[in-house]
Known about the structure:
Elements: H1 18-24, H2 30-37, E1 95-97, E2 108-115, E3 119-126, E4 133-139, E5 157-164, E6 181-183, E7 190-199, E8 202-209, E9 215-220, E10 225-231
Antiparallel strand pairs: 1-4, 2-3, 3-10, 4-5, 5-8, 6-7, 7-8, 9-10
Protein name: AMIN-like domain-containing protein
InterPro entries: AMIN-like
Amino acid sequence: MPLSRSGLVGCQGAPMRRSALARGMTAVPLSALVLLAGCGGGDTDETSSTGTAASSTTSAPSTAPSTTAAPPSGAATGTDGPTGAATFPADTSPDSAPAVAGDGPTVVTAARVAEQDGFTRLVLDISGTATPGWDVAYTDTPTQEGSGTTLEVPGSAYLRITLTGVTNPYEAPGVAELASGNQAVQSGSVLGVYYDGVFEGQALAYVGLDAPHPFRVYALSNPTRVVVDVQD
């Protein structure tokens, strides 16, 4: 702002003549000199800092639904015994075990076959709580118990399964025994199963294979089952 009529103006005014400045110096108060010294007029640098927040986008992992195919109705599933081809303890030697007593009639009621990891499983369902004994071995020709008649069993190698300690059909009224003849079961290395029936307290069945394969036999309870695993 102007300080006097002598021609001295503020910092934004036009420059004064040297003669006018000389004439007016004696009349300029000290405060005006201080004001002149403070007129810098320079621009002020303003530093703008723009912070950009990092945007983190996390996608939820895509989880494909797990689909497990249900086993066929009546199949011999993994719950019927151990699995794992890598630890399959078997050979082609005969396998036998004694019967274990229990309650109720001991009757073969069903035969089930299903492929497992590296082997095929045959399960013979047994009524009652007793466990029949077994004698399982390869035979050249499948024959009927008692008559010796040759049986037509699919395959070229035959595993003969004899169950001991079973109940004669006439001693187990109301318990349906598995029908004699070729069963509608085939899977993996098992080409067919033939159930011959009971003769003098022994049940006889044959497993038809394409060649002799290592096998193992064991029993399970609740319900009672005799299991034959044939390595593929």
